[in-house]
Amino acid sequence: MRDHVIAVDVGTGSARAGVVDRSGRLLARSEHAIIMHVEGEDIAEQSSEQIWAAVCIAVKGALEATGLSAARIAGLGFDATCSLVLRDTLGAPLALTAKDGQAFDTIVWLDHRAIAEAEECTHTGHAVIQHSGGTLSPEMQIPKLLWLKRQRPDLWARLGSAFDLADFLTWRATGSNARSLSTLTSKWGYLHGTSSPWPTDFLSAIGLSDLATRAALPDTGVPAGQAIGRLGADAARDFGLDAGIPVGAGMVDAYAGALGVLGRHAADGAEALSGRYALIGGTSSCVVSFAPKPLFRHSVWGPYNEAVFAGSWLTEAGQSATGALLNHILGMHAAGGEPSVARHRAVIERVQAMLAAHGPGFADEINILPDFHGNRSPFADPKLTGMMTGLTLDQSFDGLCRIYWRACVAIALGLRQVLETMHAGETGPVRLHLTGGHVKNALLNELYGDVAGCEVSIPQTDDAVLVGTAINAATAAGLYTSLADAGRAMAPTSVSRPPNLSTRKDQYDRDYRRFLAMQELRATLATI
Fold this sequence. Notes:
Distance between the termini: 70 Å
CATH class of the domain at 4-252: Alpha Beta
Oligomer: single chain
C-alpha cells in the first residue's frame, strides 16, 4: 500500500529529505551538505550536479532509516531556494566557474552580482515591478539572466535552459520541462491570471526578448498540489524508489514552510488565513502571508496569484541576513570560531544564564542594525549595510555573548518592522507561525513574540518545511483531493506562546526607538 511520501528540501547549505506518512508524521530525516563557491561579497555559486548528488544521498538515507520498502512510497515533492540553474543546449551544466572538479552552474539566491540590472528593471515601472514591492531585487531571476546576457555573452550563446532550483529538481526527476506556479509567479515576473502572463513588453524593454527561447520557458505553470510528471527510471535508481510515482510541482522553500505551518487553517478558506504570518527562518528570514485579494505594499514581494493556495494571493517580506548574521558574529569575534551547531548552543546557553542573572538589559549599550547583506524590507535596498554601536575592546567569551544577544534582539526588531509594514491598514491581531532553523534558537523563539508583541506558534515537528512539501506531494499523489484537505490532515499541531508584555515591553520599545534612530543616522551619514 502506497501511503507515504518523500519530501526534499534544498536549502542554502544542505539538502534534506524526509519520509512522511499520510497523517503528516515525519518518520525519518536525512541531510547532506552542499558546496558553495564564494567570491567577495556578491558572488555565490553552486553545482547543480553536486546538489543532485546530495539529494540522492539524503533520500536514500531517509528511506533506509524508516525500514520501509519503495512500494510504500506514493509520491515525491521538492522545495528549494530560489537559486538559478543554467544548462546548455544539450542539457549539461553551463558552468560560470570551474573549480576543484566542480562545474558551478548555479547562481545562488543570495548572489548580488546583478544589482545594476535589478535597478534598471525597476526604473521601467512595469506592472512586474509593482508585484515585487516597487523594486526588483537582484535575488530575482530576471536581473541575473540580464547580467548573464550582458556580462557573459559566451555563456548566453550556449544557454539551452534556465531553471529555478525547485524546477531543476523536478526536471531531473521526471524529464519534464514544466515549471511550477510557485517559482514562476514569485521569481520570474509571470503574471498568473492575466491574459498575457509572460510580460513580453517588459522583457523587450530590458533587452531580454529572447528569454523564453533561451531559458526554455513554458507558456503556463503547474499549481502546487498537482503532479508535474512521474519519476523517471534514472532518478528512481538514484533514489532507490520505484519509477512512475507522481512528482509534485516544485515549491519555493519558504512557501513550503508556510504551507507546513498554515496548511491546517487553509481548509477554512482564505479569510481564515488573515492575520497569520508564517516566519521561515534560516540563513535569511521570509515572512509569508495570504489574502483573498491582492494587497500591494512597498518592499513586500507580491501579491502573487495562487503561488500556493487556489484563490489566494501570497505576499512575502523578509530579512536578508538573520542566521547568516549570527554565523558572521561567531566567525568575526576573537572568542567565536567556526559557526557550528555546538558553538551556537554554547553561546545561547551562556546568554540564557546572563539573562537569568541580569535581565534582558544586560548588554543594552550595544545596538545593531542587522542589514549586513542589504535590506529586503522595508527599504528594499540590497546595498544597505549594517551598523554596531557600543563596542569595546572586550575579546572575552562573555563579550561575544553580549554581541550575539544584541544581534538576536536586532533581528527581532527588524521582524517587528517587517510585520508593521505587511500588516499596515489591516485589522485584527498578528499571529506568527514559526518554522525553519530558528525554531532551534531559544533566544529567537522568545524574542520574536516579545519584541513584536504578538502570539508565536511553534510547530510540534522537527521540520515543518519538509511537512509542507509532503502535503504538496501527498496531494499530487492523490492521497488527498486538495492542498486544503491535505493540510487539515497533515499539518502539525503547534504550541502557542503569548508575548511577555508585563516585564519586557518597555525595554524592547526603547530598543525599537533606538533601532529606528540608527536607521535615520545611517541615512544621514550617507548624505555627508
